[in-house]
């Protein structure tokens, strides 16, 4: 047990929590909590500590995110291996392959779809040739019953030029074009760095800020040059941004996005990561993204936040009929 204070905050949800004696969940918002507190209290109750979590809800938008927040604390504090899975709009609490709790949506679920085990798995095509990125998405969508492919499985597909002026336009171009060419459901992302004092640059040009074919070092040097006359760290605020788009034939595309706030340092720090990671100071921590472990980065980065949002809305989007 630690005295650590945990926090999750985005534009829809904001929670603060700790592992404490005889805790509970209280809300400072007028929103009605659709949260299975009573059932969870029975599952996690400790004879000496009661329900061992104290959680304050400052902003509430999703039972999925709140349950995930609670589960993350328990996994860290008492070495549990819990995970939250969404299926047909239901929340499943699972540990080591064992189902502990099911929270059904108010409208219920389709019994045949929910319990069907012989159903042919659908395929999700990731619009990338990066095997590392594909591996991350495969681990996520395998739990939802999808086989994951990437562009290396389709060597004859043409490259899609990213000619958009926004992250969403570029992600849409990739997802919708490849979906039309293959007839498959496609997930594409576009990410980059936005620096406030530069009006959002480098933005969609992040990978080629210093010119087409520029290296990470050249892009970093260009960014430092552009900020050379900005002497106060507070004036060097920035965000890493990710937009995810899922496109499927006959369906309106699904779009989610997320930002990871921080500041641009005066010099590179750290050996991990890539791109602008050595210059990007995470929030108020004083640590650069390149000083984080891969596990730390993947738990809080812009892409991680976007994926969390995607997982919340993807099952209901996929269950909608085609246009």
Automatic annotation (TrEMBL):
Substrate binds at residues 128-133, 191, 274-277, 297, 302-303. One of its GO terms (molecular function) is ribonucleoside triphosphate phosphatase activity. Signal peptide: none annotated. It is an enzyme of class 3 (hydrolase). It catalyses: ITP + H2O = IMP + diphosphate + H(+); XTP + H2O = XMP + diphosphate + H(+); dITP + H2O = dIMP + diphosphate + H(+). Keywords: Hydrolase, Magnesium, Metal-binding, Nucleotide metabolism, Nucleotide-binding. GO terms for cellular component: cytosol. InterPro entries: dITP/XTP_pyrophosphatase, ITPase-like_fam, RdgB/HAM1. Mg(2+) binds at residue 190. Homodimer. This is dITP/XTP pyrophosphatase.
């Amino acid at each position: 047990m630690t005295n650590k204070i945990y926090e999750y905050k985005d534009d829809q949800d904001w929670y603060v929590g700790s592992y404490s004696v005889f805790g509970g969940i209280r809300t400072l918002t007028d929103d009605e909590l659709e949260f299975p507190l009573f059932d969870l209290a029975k599952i996690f109750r400790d004879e000496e500590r009661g329900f061992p979590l104290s959680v304050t809800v400052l902003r509430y938008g999703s039972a999925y995110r709140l349950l995930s927040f609670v589960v993350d604390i328990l996994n860290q504090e008492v070495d549990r291996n819990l995970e939250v899975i969404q299926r047909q709009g239901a929340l499943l609490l699972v540990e080591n392959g064992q189902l502990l709790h099911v929270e059904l949506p108010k409208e219920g679920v389709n019994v045949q779809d929910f319990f069907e085990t012989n159903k042919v798995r659908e395929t999700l095509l990731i619009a990338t040739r990066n095997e590392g990125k594909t591996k991350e998405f495969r681990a996520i969508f395998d739990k939802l019953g999808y086989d994951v492919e990437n562009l290396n499985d389709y060597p004859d597909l043409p490259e899609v030029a990213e000619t958009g002026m926004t992250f969403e336009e570029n992600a849409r171009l990739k997802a919708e074009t490849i979906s039309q060419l293959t007839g498959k459901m496609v997930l594409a992302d576009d990410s980059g760095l936005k620096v406030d004092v530069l009006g959002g640059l480098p933005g969609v040009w992040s990978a080629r800020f210093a010119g087409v074919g520029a290296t990470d070092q050249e892009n970093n040097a260009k960014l430092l040059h552009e900020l050379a006359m900005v002497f106060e760290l507070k004036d060097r605020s920035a965000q890493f941004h990710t937009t995810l788009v899922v496109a499927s034939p006959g369906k309106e595309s699904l779009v989610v996005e997320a930002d990871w706030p921080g500041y641009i340092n005066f010099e590179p720090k750290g050996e991990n990561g890539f791109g602008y990671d050595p210059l990007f100071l995470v929030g108020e921590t004083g640590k650069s993204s390149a000083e984080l472990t891969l596990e730390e980065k993947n738990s809080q980065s812009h892409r991680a936040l976007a994926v969390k949002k995607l997982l919340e809305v993807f099952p209901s989007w996929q269950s909608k009929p085609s246009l």
